[in-house]
Amino acid sequence: MRRLIALAALALTCSAQPLTREQESDLRMKIRAALFVPDRLPPLAATVHGRFRPAPGVVAERVTYSTLLGLRVSAILYLPEVRKGKAPALIVVNGHGGDKYAWYANWSGIAYARGGAAVLTYDPIGEGERNIQRKSGTRAHDVLQSPPELGRRMGGLMMTDVMQAVSYLASRPEVDPGRIGAMGYSMGSFVLSLACAVETRLKACVLVGGGNLDGPDGVWDHGKPMCQGIPYKSMEFLGDRPAVIYALHAARGATLTYNGLQDTTVSITKLGPDFFADMHRRAALVHGGTAGLFEYEFTTGAHRPYFVTKPVARWLERQLDFPNWTDADIAALPVTHISDWARDNGVELDRLYASEEREGGTLALGAGVPALSRQDLSVFTPEKWEQQKNRLIYEAWLEAARKQLQPGKN
Q1: Residue 39 and residue 46 in contact, taking contact as beta carbons nearer than 8 Å
Q2: Whole domain around residue 84: which residue ranges?
Q3: Gap between the Cα atoms of 403 and 192, Å rounded
Q4: Beta bridge partner(s), residue 345
């Protein structure tokens, strides 16, 4: 029955007139409501906990800001040491097991700060300093919790973490609030597919290792239930979910999906360019044309954080205007083979993605990026973290979320 309802809704969506601005606004509100994202987000109450110099020409700050249910997000903000006016800004949204300690978060922070941008990287719920053991790669939030409402609330939490990151960057005096973008990898691409449909302050959105939003019983319906499957299924009221979500993206600003043609993790090998072309066509019907609609590009390789590569950096330069880089500057930059860099610097890549076909084979823009230690990238010392952890960790969120459950509606 659910499949029949979804197919009927899809047919209705594709035959409807383009969305009006009032309808777009109403759909954004409904998406937020489905994931328990309040109309009014909590005050940021942002705090800077320290400052350090991770690389020549780059400074970084250890920060926290508020999210839902009284919790805090632990983050690192990278900044160019010398600025030319207001800086554009980027948010890194990690894939499964990733956090602000992940090599590509560190690399993005330093590389794009060298280009003149402010870059915020943070710990997703259940990872890094938001993990009960301060560990990375745990995927703690993947464990299915009952009832399903908790999955919807987790999707809303992850979306709110991004929206609060936008608010934090916009509050910084160094940042141009009209030039904020976000980059999501794998799970992060899914989180951003929703956040960039709702968060109208984002000028640019990059989805790598994903962006292939599909229909009933597809890749994302069958993804990890707490952070992908349940939240995506809760969007069935949209009808043709990909078409409507990407139409909302187009109403907000530019979006790029960028994938490896050998990516089996999110089934790019099975779906391929024709899938994206059809999704683009359907989204154009909902949007009322192709102006501003998402762009889709491909490369060789498999599941990788392609936003650290030159093609994506050049696309972002066109959207955000990096102060220290032109398109030609980016094209002339050296590249670093990540498996070699990791070996030479003693960096342990996530074992699920370390192979040459995956993250190990990434050719990241720039060179001479240092491998930072966990101590460098921790907001708190172990002693201070013990004092703060009940406002950070997944278990604290789960306890608070259970208290919010709606009786009889699951």
Answers
A1: no
A2: 2-403
A3: 27
A4: none
Q: Name beta bridge partners: 87.
A: 175
**90 located within any domain:** yes
Q: Give the integer Cα–Cα distance in Å for 253 and 230.
A: 27
- Asked whether residue 26 is domain-assigned, the answer is yes
Task: Dump pLDDT digits (tens) for 174-203.
Answer: 999 999 999 999 999 999 999 999 999 999
Quote the CA–CA distance of 214 and 222 in Å, as a whole number. Answer: 11
User: For 285, phi and psi rounded to 5 degrees?
Assistant: -65, -40
Is the pLDDT at 409 greater than 70? The verdict is no
Q: CA-CA distance, 347 to 349, in Å (whole number)? A: 6
> Which pLDDT value is given to residue 351?
83
Number of other CB atoms surrounding residue 26 within 10 Å: 12
Q: Identify the three-state secondary structure at position 256.
A: strand
Instruction: Render pLDDT for 353-367 as a digit per residue (tens, 0 to 9).
Output: 889 999 999 999 999
Task: Name residue, tokens 């929206």.
Answer: 163
Residues 210 and 190: beta-carbon distance below 8 Å: yes
Tell me the C-alpha distance between 61 and 54, whole Å: 10
Q: Letter for the amino acid at 347?
A: V
> How many separate domains does the chain show?
1
3-state secondary structure of 273: helix
CA neighbor of 92 nearest in space, from 184, 161, 169: 184
Assign residue 92 the CATH number of its domain.
Answer: 3.40.50.1820
Which residue, chain included where needed, has tokens 């009014």? 40
pTM of the model: 0.95
SS (H, E, C) 224-246: CHHHHHHHHHCCHHHCCHHHHHH
What number of other Cβ atoms are within 10 A of residue 318's Cβ? Answer: 12
DSSP 161-214: HHHHHHHHHHHSTTEEEEEEEEEEETHHHHHHHHHHHH-TT-SEEEEES-----
- 409 belongs to a structural domain: no
| Residues 248 and 24: beta-carbon distance below 8 Å | yes
- Characterize the bridge pairing of strands 118-122 and 87-93: parallel
Question: Is there a contact between 140 and 89 (Cβ–Cβ < 8 Å)?
Answer: no
> In terms of DSSP H, where are the helices of 98-179?
103-114, 149-171
